[in-house]
Design a protein that fits this description.
Blueprint: H1 21-52, H2 63-74, H3 81-106
Amino acid sequence: MERRGSHDHAATPDPEKITTVAEARELIDAVDAQLAVLLERRAALSAAVQRLKPVGGYPGRSPGREREIVEAMSAHAPRLGPERLALIMSAVIEAGLDAAAEDRSRA
Protein backbone atom coordinates (compact mmCIF):
# COMPACT_ATOMS: atom_id res chain seq x y z
CA MET A 1 0.00 0.00 0.00
CA GLU A 2 1.30 3.43 -0.94
CA ARG A 3 1.75 6.01 1.80
CA ARG A 4 1.24 9.68 0.99
CA GLY A 5 4.58 11.28 0.11
CA SER A 6 6.39 7.99 -0.49
CA HIS A 7 6.15 7.40 -4.20
CA ASP A 8 8.06 4.88 -6.25
CA HIS A 9 9.86 7.29 -8.56
CA ALA A 10 10.53 4.52 -11.09
CA ALA A 11 6.87 3.63 -11.56
CA THR A 12 4.44 5.58 -13.70
CA PRO A 13 2.20 7.43 -11.26
CA ASP A 14 -1.55 7.06 -11.34
CA PRO A 15 -2.72 10.64 -11.99
CA GLU A 16 -5.93 9.94 -10.06
CA LYS A 17 -3.93 9.26 -6.86
CA ILE A 18 -2.18 12.64 -6.98
CA THR A 19 -4.29 15.03 -4.96
CA THR A 20 -2.51 18.40 -5.12
CA VAL A 21 -0.63 20.50 -7.65
CA ALA A 22 2.28 20.70 -5.19
CA GLU A 23 2.47 16.90 -5.00
CA ALA A 24 2.38 16.60 -8.80
CA ARG A 25 5.09 19.22 -9.17
CA GLU A 26 7.25 17.49 -6.57
CA LEU A 27 7.00 14.27 -8.57
CA ILE A 28 7.74 16.12 -11.81
CA ASP A 29 10.81 17.74 -10.22
CA ALA A 30 12.08 14.32 -9.14
CA VAL A 31 11.61 12.93 -12.65
CA ASP A 32 13.30 15.98 -14.17
CA ALA A 33 16.32 15.45 -11.91
CA GLN A 34 16.52 11.82 -13.01
CA LEU A 35 16.15 12.87 -16.66
CA ALA A 36 18.99 15.37 -16.32
CA VAL A 37 21.32 12.69 -14.98
CA LEU A 38 20.31 10.25 -17.73
CA LEU A 39 20.67 12.89 -20.45
CA GLU A 40 24.15 13.78 -19.20
CA ARG A 41 25.09 10.08 -19.24
CA ARG A 42 23.63 9.66 -22.72
CA ALA A 43 25.56 12.69 -24.02
CA ALA A 44 28.81 11.22 -22.70
CA LEU A 45 28.10 7.89 -24.39
CA SER A 46 27.15 9.66 -27.61
CA ALA A 47 30.49 11.48 -27.51
CA ALA A 48 32.22 8.11 -27.28
CA VAL A 49 30.30 6.86 -30.33
CA GLN A 50 31.29 9.96 -32.30
CA ARG A 51 34.94 9.45 -31.35
CA LEU A 52 34.84 5.76 -32.31
CA LYS A 53 32.98 6.10 -35.61
CA PRO A 54 35.07 5.03 -38.59
CA VAL A 55 34.49 8.43 -40.20
CA GLY A 56 36.89 9.99 -37.71
CA GLY A 57 34.49 11.65 -35.34
CA TYR A 58 32.34 13.32 -37.96
CA PRO A 59 29.15 14.19 -36.09
CA GLY A 60 26.86 12.30 -38.40
CA ARG A 61 23.43 11.02 -37.62
CA SER A 62 22.17 7.57 -38.44
CA PRO A 63 18.47 7.63 -39.34
CA GLY A 64 18.25 3.83 -39.15
CA ARG A 65 19.75 3.77 -35.67
CA GLU A 66 17.45 6.60 -34.58
CA ARG A 67 14.41 4.62 -35.78
CA GLU A 68 15.64 1.59 -33.79
CA ILE A 69 15.98 3.75 -30.67
CA VAL A 70 12.48 5.20 -31.03
CA GLU A 71 10.96 1.78 -31.72
CA ALA A 72 12.59 0.30 -28.61
CA MET A 73 11.55 3.28 -26.48
CA SER A 74 7.96 3.08 -27.72
CA ALA A 75 7.52 -0.20 -25.87
CA HIS A 76 8.34 1.60 -22.62
CA ALA A 77 6.35 4.77 -23.34
CA PRO A 78 3.19 3.78 -25.21
CA ARG A 79 1.35 6.97 -24.18
CA LEU A 80 3.96 9.06 -25.98
CA GLY A 81 4.10 6.81 -29.03
CA PRO A 82 6.71 6.74 -31.77
CA GLU A 83 5.88 10.12 -33.33
CA ARG A 84 6.34 12.08 -30.10
CA LEU A 85 9.35 10.02 -29.08
CA ALA A 86 10.96 10.68 -32.46
CA LEU A 87 10.65 14.43 -31.85
CA ILE A 88 12.06 14.12 -28.33
CA MET A 89 14.92 11.87 -29.37
CA SER A 90 15.82 14.07 -32.30
CA ALA A 91 16.34 16.96 -29.87
CA VAL A 92 18.26 14.73 -27.43
CA ILE A 93 20.52 13.40 -30.19
CA GLU A 94 21.15 16.88 -31.59
CA ALA A 95 22.03 18.20 -28.12
CA GLY A 96 24.40 15.27 -27.56
CA LEU A 97 26.13 15.83 -30.89
CA ASP A 98 26.44 19.53 -30.13
CA ALA A 99 27.97 18.80 -26.69
CA ALA A 100 30.40 16.30 -28.26
CA ALA A 101 31.46 18.86 -30.88
CA GLU A 102 31.98 21.46 -28.16
CA ASP A 103 34.11 18.99 -26.18
CA ARG A 104 36.23 18.27 -29.28
CA SER A 105 36.77 21.97 -29.95
CA ARG A 106 38.09 22.48 -26.40
CA ALA A 107 40.53 19.57 -26.66
